[in-house]
Amino acid sequence: MRILFFILSIGLFASVANSQSNVLPAKPQTAPIYIKNATIHVGNGKVIENGTIKIVEGKIAEVGADVAVPAGANVTDAKGKHVYPGLVLASSNLGLVEISSVRASSDVREMGDMNPSVRSIVAYNTDSKVINTLRSNGVLMANIVPQGSLLAGSSSVVQLDAWNWKDASYATDEGMHLYMPMMMARPRFGRGGGGGGRMGGGPDGNTDPVKADLQKVEEVKSFFREAKAYNAATTHEETNLKLEAVKNLFTKKQKLYVHASTVRQMLVAIDFIKEFGFEVVIVGGSESYQIADLLKQHNVSVILQQPHSLPTGEDDDVDQPYKTAAALQKAGVLFAISDDDSQTRGRNLAFNAGTAAAYGLGKEEALAAITLNAAKMLGVGDKTGSIEVGKDANIVISEGDLLDMKSSNVTDAFIQGRKIDLSDKQKQLNDRYNQKYNLKKPF
């Protein structure tokens, strides 16, 4: 049976690999491009009606309602359409996992607890079929994150139109990722799936799980103390790659992304700020609304990883995940919205923000949570995230409201001024069977 399963898995993976969508990276921009007659959502809260954008050499040269368009220019008429900054997926395993059930297509996790020298960017696969489906929904950038049990390694921001990972890299090794232990007893499930009793932290099931997890936290702190001393020294007899890998955390050239959902996990994350002075970003943060003022006090940012989910606490409002973004906004906490659903793989990013807009956020504030806020958090806010002069021309044009699942229809997209192909495997299959059965296209 194992041999049969292996053969079937390889066959499935091969069939997916052979069914490549024929989409090539766009060539560099050569002449100025104008996008005119558009409703421009700048990304910083401003909206320009009947506006024009001038793009030169991949950069936004002019934007406003009074930009002159010369005769014979390369013009994209966006009359009746909406123009947005390219969306930024703040936390993703994009390009690291293709088919989760096929082990050969997953390169997202290394063995062991302490892997700070792991770099996700070198494993990023620009030929992933998932990438093009994200571009079709306006996602033009993503933060590629490694997984692990404790210190998992560094993430990098990529733009989604590239030949290889070197072309894709937008901000390399910009963050280190720590997966915070739960520090609570886990439920133990029987063979039939029913619950019963509690599970300990050790292999024999008898170890106190809270004590075991606190020990793991102390191991991480001890590692950072050693790394601080190591990197403060001017010379070393031997090079320690793991200690070298975290040196930028101490100079704040790199952020510490702490994957944490509960209040107790986030309080421990704040301890890392107090002891080491790290710049911390919480990833997950489902209970962050409970300590929003404390997070603001310590300048902690939050990536709400999956707003379309059930609440963490039994006593929480059933719609609490939808309202958390508005609570953070009210407290002044810098936050971004992501899409961590294993089924949508990031495609619902805009619609997650749309849900937050329906539960207390303003529409432009919700847009900022997946554009400018995310870019600032990832250290690329000076280059992207909004449609402002001097920034890269990462732009999306939609016939309807990009945050509305019913009306959103992305017609054009630009990455660094290159007009990219919005074809993807799903669209190609749709066209294939429309032709086979002589069906009418839905749009």
Automatic annotation (TrEMBL):
UniProt keywords, alphabetically: Signal
PANTHER family according to UniProt: ALPHA-D-RIBOSE 1-METHYLPHOSPHONATE 5-TRIPHOSPHATE DIPHOSPHATASE (PTHR43135)
Domain of life of the source: Bacteria
TM helices/strands, residue ranges: none
Protein name, entry field: Amidohydrolase family protein
Residues annotated as domain Amidohydrolase-related: 171-418
Pfam families tied to this protein: Amidohydro_1 (PF01979)
Signal peptide: 1-19
